[in-house]
Design a protein that fits this description.
With 380 residues, the protein is α/β, with parallel strands linked by helices. Helix content is 31%, strand content 23%. It has 3 domains: 77 residues, no CATH class; 111 residues, Beta Barrel (Elongation Factor Tu (Ef-tu), domain 3); 161 residues, Nucleotide-binding domain of ferredoxin-NADP reductase (FNR) module (Rossmann fold), CATH 3.40.50. The chain has 9 helices and 15 strands. Helix 2 runs antiparallel to helix 3.
Length: 380
């Protein structure tokens, strides 16, 4: 009976139905009892009537008070949906373990590592150009080694992070060991290895929603954040003009050439120019000019009214920045990030933010702490 009442939406109809039903049941029960015990006793009939009326009143009250299941269900459906937390937008705290699910050699110097969270959870979004801070337990080192590497992809769906790392050899003419972390990654980290990482960070980022043309200029491993930028802008703002300028030694040292050309095929707004400083005969047709990416070349290819993003070695950046300044490009339209070898600045990695170089993020590799330095400060 109770379950049947739950299907009646109108409370008054539900109350009347419950009253009639309860009265009928009570009357039937009283008749059976009277017929069985003493059918000639008139007072028994009076008690039967009282029982029926009492049952009807109780049934009416029950029907009025009982909430209809269908009504409750419809009320829930018609109300505003309860927002579910978007796990993909929740950034984890401190360190989170990632598993290397794929390792790919991109060039003679650069290898990519595809990382997925060990806990199987979702990944937060990131801004194109940001980096990942990782922690490596390298044998023989007294404490974990902290390094930062640019996220070199902008995948859709966001189910992995990609780091593309250049193997750093010993500097020529100097009695200095090769890059500790880069060589460890290349030689000792394989599919199945677990690497702790902090959430994506960094201020060297591209606002993909701007309409002004953007020029992405890099050399060597400086191409890594540019891949993320060109993919994000191409996907999220396909009408924005993009110039992709990259310098490499030759085809063997040119990472992501096919990947960039695939973007060009899908988006006619993307134009590329590859410059090889020492091209080989077999590189013919794979590059647009012999020599280096410099300000003179840039001025022949792109408009001055654009945003310029630069990433590469310090000498490369200094040359390009000076050339753009002489050309008349406003300082607030030139954003850059310098790739420096770990240990070259007291074990710190300095990544200037996109403010013309007036602000820098300094990451202390021993502690993993980050601070922001501004030009008006006397020291850190």
């Amino acid at each position: 009976m109770v379950e049947s009442l739950g299907r009646i939406q109108n409370p008054w109809v539900r109350s009347l139905t419950a009253a009639v039903t309860a009265c009928s049941v009570a009357t039937l029960a009283s008749a059976i009892a009277i017929g069985t015990i003493n059918p000639k006793d008139k007072s028994a009939y009076q008690w039967g009537v009282y029982a029926a009326l009492l049952a009807a009143g109780g049934g009416a009250a029950l029907g009025l008070a009982y909430p209809g299941k269908t009504q409750a269900k419809r009320s829930l459906q018609s109300s505003s949906p309860i927002p579910r937390p978007n796990v993909a937008k929740q950034v984890w705290k401190d360190w989170r373990n990632f598993v290397v699910v794929r390792k790919v050699k991109e060039s003679e110097e650069i290898t990519s590592f595809y990382l997925k969270p060990e806990d199987g959870g979702e990944l937060p979004d990131f801004l194109p150009g940001q980096f990942l801070t990782i922690k490596l337990d390298i044998p023989g080192q007294p404490r974990p080694t902290i390094r930062t590497y640019s996220l070199s992809d902008y995948p859709e769906p966001r189910d992995y992070y990609r780091l593309s790392i250049k193997r750093e050899p010993s500097p020529k003419g100097l009695d200095v060991p090769p890059g500790l972390s880069s060589n460890f990654m290349h030689d000792q980290v394989h599919e199945g290895s677990v690497i702790p990482a902090k959430p994506p960070s960094g201020k060297f980022v591209l606002d993909v929603h701007q309409s002004i043309p953007v020029v992405l200029i890099s050399n060597g491993v400086g191409i890594t954040p540019m891949i993320s930028m060109v993919k994000a802008c191409s996907r999220l703002n396909p009408k924005r003009p993009i110039w992709f300028l990259h310098g490499a030694r030759d085809g063997q040292y040119h990472a992501f050439r096919k990947e960039v050309l695939n973007i060009v095929e899908q988006n006619p707004k993307v134009q590329v120019h590859f410059a090889y400083s020492r091209p080989r005969p077999e590189d013919e047709g794979h590059f647009q000019s012999a020599g280096y990416i410099d300000s003179a070349l840039i001025q022949t290819l792109v408009r001055r009214d654009a945003e310029f993003f630069l990433c590469g070695s310090p000498p490369f950046l200094q040359s390009i920045r000076e050339g753009l300044q002489t050309w008349g490009v406003p300082e607030d339209r030139v954003f850059f990030e310098s790739f420096m070898k770990a240990g070259s600045v007291s074990s710190e990695t300095i990544s200037p933010a996109p403010t013309g170089g007036k602000v820098a993020e300094i990451i202390f590799t021993l502690s993993g702490k980050t601070l922001t330095w501004q030009a008006e400060y006397d020291s850190i």
